[in-house]
Write a structure and sequence with these properties.
- By secondary structure, the protein is of the alpha/beta class.
- The chain has one domain.
- Helices cover 23% and strands 36% of the residues.
- It has a four-stranded mixed sheet with strand order 1-2-4-3, covered by helices on one side.
- The chain starts with a strand and ends with a strand.
């Protein structure tokens, strides 16, 4: 079974990014999605992106 990791954080710190990156890697998720209140969509890594809460 393939999983997609999703995390909702109002503000995303480098510590939280490291935790999400480790989670995605350990569970071999094809994609990690961070839902936040940033001003724009951000690609943190190849398989780790941040999208705006307002996009949902």
């Amino acid at each position: 079974m393939r999983m997609i990791a999703i995390c909702h954080r109002p503000l995303f710190s480098s510590k939280a990014l490291r935790g999400m990156r480790d989670f995605v890697r350990e569970r071999q998720c094809p994609l990690g999605i961070i839902i936040n209140n940033a001003e724009r969509v951000t690609q943190y890594e190849e398989n780790l992106i941040g999208i705006l809460f307002t996009c949902l």
